[in-house]
Amino acid sequence: MRHRFELPAKALTITAALFLLLGIHARSQTLSVDLKDLDFRDLPRVTFTACVAKSDSVVPILESQHFTIIENGIPYQAIVRCPPPSKINSVALVMDNSGSINPGTLEKLKESGKILVDSLGAIDEAAVIRFTNAQVIVEQDFTTNKGLLKFALDRMQAQGGTPLFDASFEAVQRLALRDAKRFAVILTDGEDTQSSLQDVQPIIDLANVEDVKLFTIGFQLTSDKAIDAMKRMAIETGGLFFDVQRPSELTEIYEQIASLITEPCCVGEYVSNNCSDSVRTIQLNVEIAADFGSDTETLITPYRPDEFNLTIDVPDDLTPAASGTGYIYIDPVPHPDLELTLSFVVEFDENLIDITPRFPLTLGTVTQNHIVNIRTIERGKVRFELERVKPSVNTNRLVGFPVQAQRIDSSRLVEFSIDSSIVEITGCHAFFTTDPDTTSICQCFRELSVQYDRTQILDVGEESLLPIVITQGLVEGMGAQLRFEIEVPEELELVEILNGDLFPDGTLFWTREGEKIYFEVPDFAAPFDTSGVLALLRLRAPTLRSATSFPFSMGNRVLLQECCPMTSDSLATTVLVDGLCDKIVMRRPGISVSTMPNPVSTFNGGQGTIRLHVPGTHADREYTISLTGMHGDEATEIRTLYLTEGDHELTFNTSGLSSGKYILAVTGGGEMFSHNIIVVK
User: What one-character-per-residue DSSP string does 481-496 give?
Assistant: First the structure.
């Protein structure tokens, strides 16, 4: 859904007047205001630091109502937290060292806690409180000795359960006894499982009474109940909640909390209604009683467009049970300084395809070095979830995913799509359009008929060509893979192997190991026809006393044609219409034409026999018999003769012709009857 911020005309008039009063009208400034550390990385939430002084002294008592932010002429009420006048900070570090914290994370937690300890001033104090196995343990009570505090952190080991509420309540009770600014920094990686307290409300109530601010850190929390509890403790006591997914983020979070605790200036935030501007002018006005001050900053900021497009790109085709990689693309490219939290659903036909295994491919994508969750929400629907992704690579390739074709019995087109109505984005809202894509599952296993042309009868020492023929099943012009083996009796001499007329030269390969010959068309070469001679074996007969039969066998046949569903931008055809007197095709029985042998080989002298059957309807007329090349060039005229009803035979010779496919045509009486023959040198 598209979200836009619009002001009515009356509001615009008031805004303009307010801008004139606050931004243009000259006013004596008795306060010194320094606006700094503007941070737009969590848009629409914007944070800043404001130092306010009067006569070179920090103004001690400031509240949110004293501040007004104006962004690009639009006023916002900011939430501002200013430090109390006390100069001492008391900090309770409440650390979860339950058994669910892995050793690497625990070490990073100790390191981050030490950073906060080091940031404290010389007179600031801290305590270390840990919880495990239904116990709350004060590892180190309040002290200004940073060495003791670090030693206490080093002693922690991961073990036991999570009495989070009891530990937090203990920290607030101990802070209530300190005469200082009071803070508790509470971290957990799971839901409370062992506290005597059943709710966070007593903790919040006591913290507000004793003026204790709670900063809470949820590490890889998955429970909504735990997240809600941590948020409530922070927000309802004037602190902040931090959602952390990676151990590497802990250092930055503890540094940020340390700056909030020790900062003598005010820390503020507001929610902007403008995510698409990349250049912003921010004016901060501070007014308390009769005193007024202002500061202005103009800067280039992260931004998010009002509209994105998500496009799916999947492989053009897959064979059954094969796998490939699909990608989601996002346009325009997300800003590298703005975290992206996004959820969308990819839909497909689960009977034909699957996204499996359920892991993302992030190398070289926006999500590189980040966690992306892929989970099935129902059959044929997979949800992708990106959580606080800071783009690692300047690319529009968002994330990749594995694609697995199912085993099916025919070729199919499979569409992948994203439902634009359920794309969810956190933070700055945007309108999403989506583009689908399709992949073809190419299933064309056929019972292709591969056979020897005929039984060979040879004289002693005679050479002959044995054709290996595919008689039917191929689709002309469409890539095919063939693999099979023939076992040749060792007594027969295999002189050579010749490529047939079915595939282009250089696409059929063969090797011989003993009596076996292995044939392969490995790279989806396109056949010239639906049938034809695949290869020819030139054999020489041995010298034997008695007649002998030599059987040939064929095995391990794999014949696959890549016949994916074809798509095209345009189709063309030709329509032929008969005239009243002139006919294109005669639709009555005609002369039957056949030849023996086929193919015709010059090693047999190039001699062939034509067999004609002439019905009475076509008898008693003159016919011309000729051989014509496939490209229409006439090769030779065999004979002109007068044919009567019945069967006729005549011989022809191909010794003067080159290898290839020819049309044997019988023409006469305005009609033509034809038969394809193959000539092999």
Answer: EEEEEEEPPTTSEEEE
- DSSP at 165: H
Q: Give me the pLDDT at residue 635, please.
A: 60
Strand runs labelled E in 526-670? 532-540, 553-561, 592-596, 600-601, 607-614, 621-629, 634-643, 646-653, 660-668
Tell me 24's DSSP state.
I
Q: What CA–CA distance (Å, rounded) separates 309 from 315?
A: 20
**Residues in CB range of 205: below 8 A, 6 or more apart:** none
What CA–CA distance (Å, rounded) separates 213 from 240? Answer: 9
CB 180 within 8 A of CB 90: yes
Q: How many CA atoms lie within 13 A of 343 on its CB side?
A: 12
Task: Identify any residues that bridge with 675 across adjacent strands, giving them in sequence order.
Answer: 664
- Strands (E) located in 514-620: 516-525, 532-540, 553-561, 592-596, 600-601, 607-614
Q: What pLDDT shows up at residue 382?
A: 94
**How long a stretch of residues is the chain?**
681
CA 296 to centroid of chain Cα atoms: 44
Cα–Cα distance between 66 and 44 in angstroms, integer? Answer: 22
Q: Which of 177, 162, 154 is nearest to 221 (CA)?
A: 162
Pairing mode of beta strands 307-313, 79-81: unpaired
- For residue 25, the model assigns a pLDDT of 45
CA–CA distance, 80 with 67 (Å, rounded to integer): 8
Cα separation, 276 vs 307, whole angstroms: 10
Chain centre to alpha carbon of residue 304 = 22
Q: Which residues of the chain have pLDDT under 70?
A: 1-27, 56-58, 60, 84-87, 357, 409-411, 443-450, 452-458, 471-479, 524, 555-589, 602-604, 630-635, 681
Is the backbone peptide bond immediately before 565 cis, with ω within 30 degrees of 0?
A: no
Specify the DSSP class assigned to residue 23: I
Residue where the block lists tokens 């019905």: 615
Q: Which domains does the chain show, CATH number per domain?
A: 10-83+268-300 (2.60.40), 89-245 (3.40.50.410), 307-438 (2.60.40.680), 450-561 (2.60.40.680), 592-680 (2.60.40.1930)
Residue identified by tokens 């309108």 is: 431
Contact 253, 112 (CB under 8 A): yes
Chain position carrying tokens 């509209």: 307
Residues 6+ apart with CB under 8 A from 201: none
